[in-house]
Specification:
The complex is a heterodimer of chains A (about 70) and B (about 190).
Chain A (H helix, E strand, L loop, with lengths): L10 H13 L4 H13 L1 H20 L13
Helix pairs in contact in A: 1-2, 1-3, 2-3
Chain B lengths: L7 H6 L2 H12 L2 H17 L10 H19 L43 H16 L3 H11 L5 H8 L3 H23 L4
Helix pairs in contact in B: 2-3, 2-4, 3-4, 5-8, 6-8
Classes of the chains: A mainly alpha (about 70), B mainly alpha (about 190).
Chain lengths: ~70, ~190
């Protein structure tokens, strides 16, 4: 039987989960809690988009997407 | 983007300060950082004609430097990279002002600005992120960049830096929260 109950989390908890998701996959329960909270919280929807934009800019600045094949074997 | 009209060395040298900051944070030693950056620039100069401007020059060089730094770090014994940062258990207390006592975003301090999406603004946005990263405490920035720049797994960082998983997660959380707070406030400033 699947447990479909979800313990509500706070906005502060969501920031922790958003950060954790950057380092690895959330547990199914955490993912469910995050999704459920975001669905009903306008501020966290904004904050989540801000984090996403920040992470995208970090990827660009730190060349996380770039995989240079040349000039690395000096 | 690649500037074919200028001397490659002159163009590459313009990125040296940024690369040196990254390398110094990761390697701790100025001499090691200088070596890694020098190798990066020499390698880039050799590969200059093969560089087709697919990425920005900074991205290209940052990617090359990453390999040099990771090689150096992995050749060192665990614990030799950085001292464990002073990471108090109440490490999240500094964000108390952002939230109400029951954990909701505080309406008086929540910044809801979003960054512009135009290409013209991208360079400026990246500069903002870089400036905000410079404001991170050195120990925090070092660990944050081991994860975000070098792409090291948490376990590897924990072993090299003698940190617990809980401590490392708090350090990364604090860095991301600080960066978000710093950048969203800048996004809200008029150009």
């Amino acid at each position: 039987m699947t447990d479909t109950t979800t313990t509500p989390i706070t906005c502060r908890d969501t920031t922790w989960l958003v950060s954790s998701a950057r380092d690895g996959q959330l547990t199914p329960q955490q993912a469910h809690q995050l999704t459920a909270h975001l669905a009903g919280c306008a501020a966290c929807q904004v904050a989540s988009r801000q984090f996403a934009q920040l992470f995208a800019q970090l990827d660009t600045l730190l060349a996380r997407e770039a995989v240079p094949n040349d000039a690395t074997d000096t | 983007m690649m500037d074919g009209a200028r001397d490659p060395w002159q163009v590459l040298a313009g990125e040296r300060p940024f690369l040196l900051r990254l390398a110094r944070l990761q390697l701790g030693s100025q001499a090691d950082a200088e070596d890694a950056v020098q190798e990066t620039l020499v390698g880039a100069a050799r590969g200059w004609h093969g560089y087709a401007g697919r990425a920005t020059l900074r991205s290209w060089l940052t990617g090359i430097l990453r390999h040099k730094i990771v090689d150096q770090i992995r050749s060192r014994r665990p614990g030799a990279i950085a001292p464990a940062p002073a990471c108090a258990i109440d490490g999240e207390a500094e964000f108390d002002g952002l939230f109400t006592p029951d954990g909701a975003w505080h309406p008086d301090t929540f910044v809801d600005t979003m960054c512009g999406a135009t290409l013209a603004a991208q360079r400026q946005l990246l500069d903002i992120v870089e400036l905000c990263m410079r404001r991170l405490p050195e120990d925090t920035a070092r660990l944050f960049l081991m994860r975000e720049y070098l792409g090291m797994e948490l376990k590897e960082i924990e072993e090299h830096c003698m940190l617990t998983n809980a401590n490392l997660r708090v350090v990364l959380y604090r860095a991301r929260m600080r960066l978000r707070e710093c950048t969203v406030r800048s996004w809200g400033e008029p150009e």
